[in-house]
Amino acid sequence: MMLKKLFWLLMLSLALPAQAAFMCEADLQYGLIVNDRHIRVIEDTRTLYQINDTEQLIVRGDWIKLDAVATSHLQELAQGLRYAVPKVILLASEGVDLAIGTIDHVYVGLVGSEHDSYQRLQDALWKVRTKVKTKFIRAGNSYYIGPRSLENVDELMDPELEEEIELALGTSVGGILTAIGGLASEGDTSLERKMEDLSTRLETMGAEIERRIAPQADTLRKKAEWFCNEIKRLDAIEESLRERVPELKAYDLIVTGKS
Length: 259
Hints:
This protein is α+β, with helices and mostly antiparallel strands. The protein is 61% helix and 15% strand. It has helices at 2-19, 68-110, 118-135, 159-181, 188-244, and strands at residues 26-28, 31-34, 38-43, 46-52, 56-59, 62-64, 136-139, 142-145, 254-256. α3 runs antiparallel to α4. The two termini are 36 Å apart.
């Protein structure tokens, strides 16, 4: 029972932001760079197409002449991306910082920062934060989102990042159990008393996390809901543009599901 409660609390610390969110199938099939002057859709380091300001479209280096309807779609798409992309980059950063901060808070509260395994936990969480930061980048007035970075936008983590989080959790759980196991030599009575104390701390910490983290998680959920609706709206605009511009048929930037 003690082990189950321990795992539950540690998983709760990671899951709170996601639980406060929702399922939204949305992704980018290519990298996307957005700034005030242009929007670039890239594959590796190659620019597939570019929107200059809101009216000029260049596909594979060729300027494409647009009719009035296509120009209107292009303007709406460009304006929407310039508004939404900076916000989702901030959302990604806030989400991972909240999750990592909560995990760190739980671990320090249970074991302390002086435990041998604490640095291993920090190293694993640092890798998670670094991977998120490299997929959602702001450099001055330019914003970059990597391909396949929006999958499960409620979690803002791809399977590779989830593995890093699981590694961190495994490290922390192992450290806690090792610390508990080391108490066995003190005798059964002492061990039982220590575990009861740990159980009390777990319950207290769970309530504290709910009080401190839930409001922040709810704010992130609302931001994620807005972005999900916005990216679906932009997907519809992109599809209308691709129907009128044959040169864009091969490049489906935004893909969304029905959730």
